[in-house]
Amino acid sequence: MWAMHAARLFGTAPVRFDGAVRVAMPMIAENQHVFPLTVDARALGTVQRIIVLADLNPIPVAVDFAPMALAPWLALRIKLDQRTPVRAAALGADGVWHVAGGWVDAAGGGCSAPPVSRARGDWAEHLGELRGAAFAHADGTRLKFTVRHPMDTGLVENIPAYNIEEITVRAGGRLLAQMAVQGSVAEDPVFSLLLQGPASAPFALRLRDSNGRVFAGDVPPPAGGH
């Protein structure tokens, strides 16, 4: 599947498998509905986009992240439908897609089983609840946020596709980053992003889902801004 995905996603752009892109993830998925991974492409310098994909998922691409004013660093949780390569591709300033990843063993069914909130029947009561916090550490300011959302893939009988589609992050009126999101991201998505340096203004989050609903909120900077 890799050749097909590469042609569809990258066209005629050069692609290089490169250890400068670091993908930290377990090699065995303990829970195929919630598989954590972290992508760190800071060694490449300027990065225009980061795509996270699982080759053999029915929805291969999980996110297409444009770091813009943030570091090319991202942590998230995705679904896995079977044993598959999981990859991150970073588009550098050189116009080359730098790719890294590895095989992950998974029991399967992560994309084709109903989310927990659907099974409980309480998803509508908590839809769009947004929580976040910012933390200072040696690399800068880490922003972590989550939103309650079923992230339906459309692959479960009688449950149509319904997922967060777009996320934007601003601070002080400036657009810091944006992200296109697919249904292969885990239910109740959790994202961590990284601002290099101290934060001096609240992070303004705006999330839009595939039904056009918008969820927004502000995350204050760490106390003292550093």
Brief overview:
The chain has 226 residues and is mainly beta.
Structural features, described:
- With 226 residues, this protein is mainly beta.
- The chain has a single domain, classed as Immunoglobulin-like.
- Helices cover 8% and strands 44% of the residues.
- The protein contains three helices and 15 strands.
- It has helices at residues 2-10, 116-120, 123-126, and strands at 15-17, 22-24, 35-40, 47-54, 61-66, 73-78, 84-92, 97-104, 130-137, 140-147, 164-171, 174-181, 190-195, 203-209, 214-219.
- The strands form two sheets. The protein has a nine-stranded mixed sheet with strand order 1-8-7-4-5-12-11-14-15, with no helix packed on it.
- Strand 14 and strand 15 (214-219) form a beta hairpin.
- The longest helix is centred in the N-terminal third of the chain and has 9 residues, at 2-10.
List the strand order in the largest sheet: 1-8-7-4-5-12-11-14-15
How many helical elements? 3
Topology pattern, helix = H, strand = E:
HEEEEEEEEHHEEEEEEE
In percent terms, what proportion of residues is strand?
35-45%
Structural class: mainly beta
Overall radius of gyration: 17 Å
Number of separate domains: 1
CATH topology label:
Immunoglobulin-like
Separation, N- and C-terminal Cα atoms: 44 Å
Tally of strands: 15
CATH superfamily: SoxY domain
Shape: globular
Please name the CATH architecture. Sandwich
So what's the CATH class? Mainly Beta
The main β sheet shows up as:
9 strands, mixed
Helix content: under 10%
Mean of pLDDT:
94
Which ranges are low-confidence, i.e. pLDDT below 50, for 5 or more consecutive residues? none
